């Protein structure tokens, strides 16, 4: 996997993925940013959310669960001093669908957290990563 990050101005950057997608990252005004895009550390957290949601949805689909929506709400804490790594990350899944099995949802989240989600497992090397979920009827 390859990626490219090009400086634009101040602390703004254009990030390009190997698959041909681009987005702007920027810093806060106190560091010269113009708030044009997400912060790089936010991207890490968003990436983890996307990675784990991908796994959970794939597992639930293969289990023939009738999911109509899945939201992952992430909350993270960072260290007070440099390097300000993530020290705690919590992922709360809100899974909506018809006749969803609590056992299947719990299993999908556990498999993602412990086996499949590269981002969660990698970030879990330095942060306490926890998960919970709620099921809503469609």
Automatic annotation (TrEMBL):
The record's SUPFAM superfamilies line, in alphabetical order, gives:
OsmC-like
Highest taxon of source? Bacteria
Q: Which PANTHER family match?
A: PROTEIN YHFA (PTHR34352:SF1)
Spell out the protein name for this chain: Putative redox protein, regulator of disulfide bond formation
Q: What is the lineage of its organism?
A: Bacteria, Pseudomonadati, Pseudomonadota, Gammaproteobacteria, Chromatiales
